[in-house]
Specification:
about 15% strand, ten-stranded mixed sheet, two-stranded antiparallel ribbon, alpha/beta, 12 helices
Length: about 450
């Protein structure tokens, strides 16, 4: 009996071992069947990365310094252009001129974790709320790989607490557009502290209604232009993913949003390597790799080598103690400019570290000129987006127009509040003309009528 038990247990152990072996073999075979084979893009990316590492070992770790590497139709052609000594002059390089041309107060800026300067009382639910832009991104797996959300553009609009009329006009024009062919678009109005409790209550009600306000604790009047830009940049730095697109404008600007989207789609659409690989090296030796061009695009004016105004009776004049240089660095007009959030973060970091400030009327110079140049990447990263194309009008500004210039009945354009009836009709008519070209394309808008 004892022998039979021993023999039986041996057979059972043997059967179990055989069954386990068969099970693991079947499981491994099943894993092979369901595991997708690497596609051509993944294999090409791995080969591309290995070739980059091989070239760095042969030519030195700094060989790719100050070069932009673009993955084009054929990887071999791009690599040959990069490593060819004969074509070295044709390789796009970053101009390192710039920092040395700025006055001394702007040299040696300490960029190690500069403190955040702004606290926010109201934030836009349309971006951070449970049904906002960030939640949409999360539902798609934190990527732009799906067809529902191909890119995200967040437009920050500098406004003031009392300018609810202007905000109403924008909400009934270009700011009503939420999606154009997979590009998610959100508009955020930036204001400072309210002057009275009544104004704050009205602002809170406006935020609850539209969910598109960003309010920081700080100045809100004419002296707040730089604060508004820096608060917007800081909020984007803290809140938005790096491959979102950041834009800044004013509340008296009507934007041809479809044309702006199409322009940015060709230049800032997030692409994963090897579809596009951009390596940017700063003067301090730091390197950033991205799938987006790290450029600042000016849809308003683009100013190069402007002489600094010294006559203090004029609007944009500064003293030599504020800025000792003879010329401003290249900068964008405040009407509209756009850039990837990664670049906005860098500019925000530099601007927070600066102790020297310009007058509020020079906020465009301070942010897109001086702070941008202090990144140490030269001036090739600021680009005019207006171009010479016939009919290309990305924006149009409408400062508060006089009643004499507006004789059209506003009810014929859109149903808008009576305070807007006279002054803002030309702006709405311009938008209606631009919107006519967008109607034939897939888009989503918010109807506030």
């Amino acid at each position: 009996m004892k022998r039979w038990i021993i023999r039986s247990s041996r057979f059972r152990v043997k059967d179990i071992v055989i069954l386990m072996g068969v099970f693991f073999m079947c499981f491994s075979f099943f894993q092979i069947l369901i595991t997708p084979m690497p596609n051509d893009a993944e294999r090409e990316h791995e080969v591309f990365k290995q070739q980059l590492q091989l070239i760095e070992r042969e030519k030195g770790a700094d060989f790719f310094k100050n070069k932009l590497i673009f993955k084009e139709e054929k990887m071999e052609e791009a690599m040959e252009r990069q490593i060819s000594q004969e074509d070295d002059e044709n390789i796009p390089k970053i101009s390192m001129i710039g920092i040395q041309e700025l006055p001394k107060p702007y040299h040696n800026v300490q960029l190690i974790h500069p403190p955040h300067k702004y606290e926010f009382r109201i934030q836009p639910d349309r971006v951070i709320g449970p049904y906002g832009l960030l939640k949409t991104r999360e539902l798609q797996g934190h990527t732009f790989a799906g067809s529902f959300m191909k890119a995200a553009l967040v437009i920050m609009v500098n406004s003031v607490v009392q300018s609810s009329a202007r905000r109403a006009v924008l909400r009934r024009s270009w700011a009503s557009i939420r999606d154009i062919e997979g590009w998610k678009i959100e508009t955020v109005f930036v204001v400072g502290s309210a002057g009275t409790k009544k104004q704050q209550n009205q602002l809170s009600m406006e935020s609850q209604t539209y969910g598109d306000l960003l309010q920081y604790y700080g100045a809100d009047g004419p002296s707040s232009a730089i604060d508004k830009n820096l608060a917007s940049l800081e909020w984007a730095d803290e809140t938005l993913p790096g491959d979102f697109i950041y834009a800044s404008t004013q509340d008296d600007v009507i934007i041809n949003i479809a044309r702006v989207r199409d322009y940015l789609n060709e230049r800032l659409l997030p692409l994963k390597p090897p579809a596009r690989l951009v390596i940017v090296t700063s003067q301090d030796g730091s390197t950033m790799v991205s799938g987006q061009y790290q450029n600042l695009y000016c849809f308003d004016t683009y100013t190069w080598e402007e002489v600094v105004e010294r006559n203090l009776e004029r609007k944009r004049a500064v003293t030599t103690s504020q800025y000792a240089g003879d010329k401003w660095p290249p900068y964008c007009g405040e009407g509209l400019y756009a850039m990837p959030v990664t670049l906005a973060r860098d500019i925000s970091t530099v601007a927070r570290a600066l102790k020297t400030r310009l007058s509020p009327g020079l906020s465009d110079v301070f942010v897109t000129g001086i702070a941008r140049r202090l990144l140490g990447r030269g001036d090739d990263n600021i680009v005019t987006a207006t171009g010479d194309e016939v009919g290309w009008t990305p924006i149009q500004r409408f400062p508060m127009l006089s009643k004499k210039e507006s004789k059209v009945d506003s009810s014929k354009v859109l149903s808008i509040p009576s305070p807007l009836a006279a002054d803002m009709v030309p702006a709405l008519e311009t938008w209606q003309k631009w919107y006519g070209a967008l109607q034939a394309r897939y888009h989503i808008y918010t109807n506030l009528s």
